Amino acid sequence: MDTLRYTFIFNPAADKGRAAVREPWLRNMVSGMHDAVVKRTAYAGHAGDIAREACQESDCLVACGGDGTLHEVVNASFGSDLPIGVIPIGSANDFIKTLQHGGSVVKNMPACFSGQSRTVDLGSVLFNGDKHRYFVNSLGIGFTGRIAGTVRRTTWAKGELGYIHALFSVLIGYAPLKMHIKITSPDSVYEMHEPVFAFSVSNGRVEGGKFRIAPEADPADGLLDVCILKSIPNVLFLGYVIKYLRGSQIFDSRVIYCKASSVEVTIPDSEMMHMDGEVFEHIKGKIRISVVPGALRVFS
Ligand SMILES: Nc1ncnc2c1ncn2[C@@H]1O[C@H](COP(=O)(O)OP(=O)(O)OP(=O)(O)O)[C@@H](O)[C@H]1O
């Protein structure tokens, strides 16, 4: 069998710059193992540019960073059918927690070289008219979009602490958002039109490091998991934080949790959205989210 050609796409800015110290380790691990090169990103968006080029000259791509790095690599290489590996050296590394090897950097290295891959679903998102992205792990509009924005802006709080700090910062002055939501499930269509505290659609189970936002999610089931927290008084918030940490919010009467093949959301006012922790500002109008079954090959 021919040796597989690997491109490792290394984001030194991941984990608020702490990933940079991993570079000698990564280069050492990679050297002499297979036909592999390490390419270091130089700016935000560069992981996608490297991935696009590498599709022509590689058999496998490995995203070395957090969920944002993986998000860029997946969007840039969509349609190439190249398997993608993950070396989780970001702050949260949420998607890898749903895959077999958990968040371990050391365990994921051999997984990348095993040649064993499996297919998982992707979320496809049309927004602001003609804008389009795929997400791997999760999407949030409103509350969790603002949290992702705060995490990006805050430089002093690193790792999962950054997500906890952002959670409470966003809560101050937060009011539930008006949303019209249409959820299409395999056997039903459900519509709601009321203020929503938190809205997410997930392919993976975890978000923000520790929050079990979609505890029933299976990234290979051909469906996305929808979790909507209806309007709640802010005083009840702490109780819901604990429920989201445990994944028990799905049994709460104020939460809608279901599997869907597509979700259409309409928001009248400009809002923040995140996909895999990447922030998209000034989102307004219709957002069309749908599953693309088995669209991504991952090493696991
Ligand atoms: N060389 C670079 N300089 C500045 N920013 C970069 C560079 N390379 C990539 N980025 C940006 O760094 C951001 C953070 O990357 P990533 O999401 O992988 O790490 P993280 O936020 O620590 O992890 P997680 O999303 O799992 O919490 C991304 O938005 C990406 O576009």
From TrEMBL:
Pfam families: DAGK_cat, YegS_C. It comes from the Bacteria. SUPFAM superfamilies: NAD kinase/diacylglycerol kinase-like. GO terms for molecular function: ATP binding; kinase activity. Residues 1-129 form the DAGKc domain. The keyword tRNA processing does not apply. NCBIfam families: YegS/Rv2252/BmrU family lipid kinase. PANTHER family: SPHINGOSINE KINASE (PTHR12358), SPHINGOSINE KINASE RELATED PROTEIN (PTHR12358:SF54). This is Diacylglycerol kinase. The lineage of its organism: Bacteria, Pseudomonadati, Chlorobiota, Chlorobiia, Chlorobiales.
